[in-house]
Amino acid sequence: MNSKWVFHIGYATIALIMPGHPSEIISLTAFGSSSLLIIDIFYYLRYKISKKEVKMAILEGDYLKVAKVQEDNEEMLLAKENVVGVGTGHKIKDGKDTGEPSIVVFVSQKIDKALIKPNDLIPETVEKFKTDVIETGEIFAGTEGIEEKKEEEIGVEVLRQRIRPAKGGFSVGHYKITAGTIATCVYDLYPFPGIPPKYYILSNNHVLANSNDAKIGDPILQPGPYDGGSVPKDIIARLSRFVPIKFMKPGYAPCNYVDAAIAEGNFHELDREIYWIGYVKQVNSRPKVGDLVEKTGRTTNFTTGRIIALNATVNVNYGGGRVARFCRQIMTTCMSGPGDSGSLVCDIKEGAVGLLFAGSAKVTVINSILYVQSLLHIRLHP
Q1: Amino acid 157: pLDDT
Q2: Which of 61, 215, 226, 354 could form a disulfide with 179 if both were Cys (CB 3.0 to 4.6 A apart)?
Q3: 242-252: string of b/e by CB count within 10 Å (b at 16+)?
Q4: Could you tell me the end-to-end alpha-carbon distance of the chain, in angstroms, rounded to an integer?
Q5: Using CA atoms, how far apart are residues 283 and 366, in angstroms rounded to an integer?
């Protein structure tokens, strides 16, 4: 453990402690159910994140206060009928963003108040902060419904052809799924500086690891099977590691932080470039509500969106009766469709913001890139 920083994520603080150096303690504010996150010390040292910057990487100012209230009342809000998520965002009035920090409640459908049971009504304020209700529809992990998109795609140039070297934005998938999207190509967190021992494709668990139903070493195809990829001619990589998805059960709703996986490929067949966006120039650890973002994906090509909530907890449908709860997510306006899962979402300066994995006709859900890098022990950018 001497080479690790240990982040304990609880209801109040995160402590960064370097074993053997008890004086090096950084306290941060965070929210969510308790879990243990191990982050390699090299990541911290390489990016030279200051105490203040680490705090800001989560939330700051009034957003921090809103997020604490959100945390204290999250279970109450999520228990209401029709509610699929809760986050920290802005109050919208008459269709305009007021800029006022508020608790955002995501509902599958807006219903006349007269038809809602009193206990299921969303309060206008929670403690001292206003609420804002956003209709999302049902939120699905991004390969659900890909078959229904085929007719819409006829005659449209989509990124589902074979390409070597493989690059971000193009079709990819485990040999037993339909198809998703390559985020970009990455390498191990350490040694750094040094010679990376392996190189990988980054995408979602449900794209590369078949929603946990895969084995390390399974073939990954480019393009994905639904786009014509087949074994053995289109094998681009083999599953290397993934973060398991924990699904909800009655009385059990564990927090997931990422839907993410990597697959090892040959260096000369992998390219870090993202089609139409270019190369990741930095990691954006401090995205803000209202920020513009962009992505390139297998189905909807190049799209842009705007961040509408941070620190979101949202229930995501994986089909087959499986639902998973994700915490500390980034929500944007709709910028994706089925098959775009795995796309890397960047700010307009090509800074990596997160990994797209789910959405609806009205919103897109993104894993924070900090969690993706930390839990998979990878680097997107030197």
Answers
A1: 53
A2: 226
A3: bbebebeeeee
A4: 24
A5: 15
- Which residue ranges in the chain fall short of pLDDT 50? 1-57, 151, 154-155
Amino acid at the residue 273: E
The total number of residues written for the chain in this structure: 382
Determine the pLDDT at residue 38. Answer: 36
pLDDT computed for residue 61 by the predictor = 84
- Residue 39 has φ and ψ, to the nearest 5°, of -125, 130
- Which residue reads 């946990």 in tokens? 212
Burial class (CB within 10 angstroms; exposed 0-12, middle 13-18, buried 19+) of 203 = buried
Distance CA 320, CA 7 (A): 34
Sign, Cα dihedral of 152, 292, 169, 365: negative
Given the DSSP bridges, would you call strands 301-319 and 96-107 parallel, antiparallel or unpaired? Answer: unpaired
pLDDT at position 230 is 98
Q: Would you kindly state where each structural domain of the chain is located, as residue ranges?
A: 4-56, 61-135
CB of 302 within 8 A of CB of 294?
yes
Residues with Cβ within 8 Å of 203's Cβ and at least 6 positions away in sequence, in order, are 172, 180, 181, 182, 183, 260, 261, 262, 263, 341, 342, 355
- Give the tokens for residue 178: 């339909």
The DSSP 8-state label assigned to residue 216 in this structure reads: T
